[in-house]
Amino acid sequence: MIEFQNVSKVYSNGTQALKNISIKVDDGEFVFIVGQSGAGKSTFLKLITCEERPTDGEIVVGEQRLSELKRAEVPYLRRMMGMVFQDFRLINKMTVFENVAFAMHVVGASSREIRRRVPYILSLVNLQDKAQCHPRELSGGEQQRVGLARALVNNPKLLIADEPTGNVDPALSFEIVDLLNQINKRGTTILMVTHEHSLVKHFQRRVVEINSGAVVSDSCNWEARDD
Fold this sequence. Notes:
The relative contact order is 0.19. This protein is of the alpha/beta class and 227 residues long. The protein has seven helices and ten strands. It has helices at residues 41-48, 74-78, 96-106, 111-124, 140-152, 170-185, 197-203, and strands spanning 2-10, 16-25, 30-34, 56-61, 64-65, 81-85, 158-162, 189-193, 206-211, 214-219.
């Protein structure tokens, strides 16, 4: 699904964000990405989505070598991905249904497909009764579930969750990751960046730790470092 082959990233200001990373994520895996602020986690995700390009090395997503990908082809690559963000990024003037449907409109889905698919996805995240609500009428946890529904509605092979529990309380954090866990069991590959060590320990999945731009740990028996 994803492979980094000796990947480094140096920004124009001289900052070396990633240093010679080689790592592989197989189809159907659930992987936590952890590390301190500035460790390189965000750059790691941006390279996968082609928001940034590597300075050295090769990245493969699916069967696509990203070095061979033209700029005009990037949107098609992103269609195989779903993104969940810390700050929800919902459109306040739209209802829950419309926020989720918007992701289908973008890829050219028909009205019939949207009417069929959106209610199913909302039921998957337990929001079927909130379809006509607006984001301001929802709790933080409910808004994040809308974001999750929007990420899932086009049936992505890969779901990238960037600090998805950062703006919800601890109890809801476990609920969100439990939903991600259920989605993973249906076959979706999941990469989740998090600072919450309690979540990582509880769900006992593969954990990749990035520190100062390098992978310092890759394990299913991860323990938080003190430094």
